[in-house]
Amino acid sequence: MYKSINSAASWVATTGVMSPVVSTEFVTEFAIAPSNNQYIYAIHGTTGIFITTDGGTTWTLSNTGITISAGALSYVSIDQTNHLHAFVTQSGYTAGNKVYETIDGGANWTNISYNLPNLPANCSVIEPSMGRLFIGMDVGVYFYDNIGLTWMLYNTGLPNTPISDLEISPAAPSKLRAATFGRGVYEVDILTTTGVITASSGTVKFDVFPNPTNNMLTVIMKVNKATDFVMEISDMTGKIVLKQSQHFTPDKIQQQIDISTLANEIYFLKFSSGDGNSQTLKIIKQ
Description:
By secondary structure, the protein is mainly β.
């Protein structure tokens, strides 16, 4: 591991050695903890993940809990506010070995692959505001927020091609950007529990609660004039399971949506205004 302290005019090797490693393999990915730059997580070929707590003076191989034989590790993401909390993705085609989480600085890793498909996991990014993890696989983007121990497909509008990188810019924290293999870069809104729609009556802010819910959803939509919206609820496969029109006025801003007939799982609630603008939220029926 090399570092520069003069804007890359020169580079110096850190004193720490990553050992034991396969001599023909190299550092393929690393991340510096935003909250503590002495913590660096580095992936070395198929050997595994090394961690330094002193800026590279010493390195420790930290694979406990990771099935290294299942495939090479591919990417590491570190919590913005907690240097001990990180995720690492794994490539390869071994079912059930795709993503691992540590909450103790790499001393132990927990497999959180759950329902992910048997495809290589290539990259990841943590959403700073909500702590949700997005990962890019050989086909599709999935996200996880520790509710229900389930990964959700987040792939609308993406081509069926490997996702090579995911980023959330501090300048646009509500946008997720995905780089694909040979098909360019895509951008999508990140799901929230509240939303904003730019409708014909101006910018409309709305709230949906409770979330999770068991039978009824309440929607509060503050509008300047009578406005019609189309509401669609779709399941994780993209199938629309409920669709209806919603009419809001300045003196009637609250509507209720009965979802008691839906199965207990995760859905996407989409509101569209008459001029084509829309916002999508994640809701959980339990």
